[in-house]
Amino acid sequence: MGPAAAQQTTGSQPSGSNTMSPPAITKTRTLGSGDFRMEVSALGFGVMGMNYNRGPHPDRKEMIALIHQAVDHGVTLFDTAQVYGPLINEELAGEALHSYRDRVSVTTKFGHSIVDGKYEEGKLNSRPENIRRVAEESLKRLRVEVIELFYQHRLDPDVPIEDVAGTVKDLIQQGKVKRFGLCEVSPQTIRRAHAVQPVTAVQSEYHLMWREQEKEVFPVLEELGIGFVPYSPLNRGFLGGGITEYTRFDSGNDNRQTLPRFKPEAIRTNLALVEALNAFGRTRGMTSAQVALAWMMAQKPWIVAIPGTTKLAHLEENLRTTEMTLKADDLRELESAVSKIQIVGDRYPPEQQRQVEGG
To answer: What's the CA gap between 98 and 142, in Å, rounded?
Structure first.
């Protein structure tokens, strides 16, 4: 069996906290099709965890410098949302990427209820007037003239998806938005929305511990020419191997403490998957995170993952994955190993699970 191709540029690591050795991403992928397609780097970057939902975060200037490193090494797709913070994550992305706006695409999302800068827990709002208001406010926070891709963050059961798609279509015609996206929705919703305004990408959780989207969503995306953007491709850091049953998550700014899959007893059992990834990667010069990302990139050419990080070393680790190729034999071996492992714990608590259509 031939090993995975994992050719990497060699060289010493430059000194200093804000420098990174090669390689830069040179490969691109296309989300969507037709007039609303979007060419981006083969791997994107999720900004959320830099100041929201992932515990204590480093100095803002350090995070901006890290984002600049990502851009300078070929990343062109950056993801944020109105609800992250709320508002402060968009502001960070806007400040960090303003001077690069002609080189990158910043995507954001609407759909949660935010009043006077505060998130109304569990409430959704995709009424047309709110979508238009969020678009105007996000443009200012992101410091751009047009939103490259505007996702509905969660399906609002009180607003027909046709009205949502129609409102975004109006914003596209007005030049305030370029493309339309959906998050965590069923095949039926995708079809209904796409009939009104072509959907460029669907965003959803997807990784080796959560593969439900493969069953019904992927066939529809392939049929309609829609891209797929997996968030949490390393299951919120778990597949990187740095989390154990003794890990404690900051109660002030880390949602992992609320997730069933991150309870100590679930972590203890699910570490078997990380061990399998490490065993597979050891003979191929790959970390468990790189194995997980390389596996994902091998699934479909229209998948663009958006791993996030606050650490330069992890950014480089992730970017090097774009140079690694898993051959068919490698994929079969990996699939065989992980198929024997039973994953424990739901991905969301019940109240959040209700907001995820069909998931």
So the answer is: 7
| pLDDT bucket at 358, cuts 50 / 70 / 90 | low
Is residue 58 within 8 A of residue 310, CB to CB? The reply is yes
88 backbone dihedrals φ, ψ, rounded to 5°: -70, -25
Catalytic residue numbers read: 84
User: For 122, left (φ over 0), alpha (ψ -120 to 50), or beta?
Assistant: left
Q: Residue type for 284, please?
A: R
Cα separation of 55 and 33, whole Å?
Answer: 37
State the pLDDT at residue 278: 98
Residues belonging to the chain: 359
- Statement: the pTM of the whole predicted model exceeds 0.70: yes
Q: Give the per-residue pLDDT at 351.
A: 81
Annotate 314-349 with DSSP letters as a single string: HHHHHHHGGGEE--HHHHHHHHHHHHT----S-SS-
Percentage of residues in the chain with pLDDT exceeding 70? 93
Q: Which helix (H) or strand (E) holds 230?
A: strand 227-231
Helix, strand or coil, per DSSP, at residue 153: coil
How far is 11 from 251, CA to CA, in rounded Å? 40
Average pLDDT over residues 97-108: 97
CA distance 222 to 218: 6
Q: Of all residues in the chain, what percent are helix, strand and coil, respectively (each to 5)?
A: 40, 15, 40
- Report the CATH architecture of 25-241+299-324: Alpha-Beta Barrel (3.20)
Domain ranges of the chain: 25-241+299-324
Q: What is the mean pLDDT of residues 159-171?
A: 98
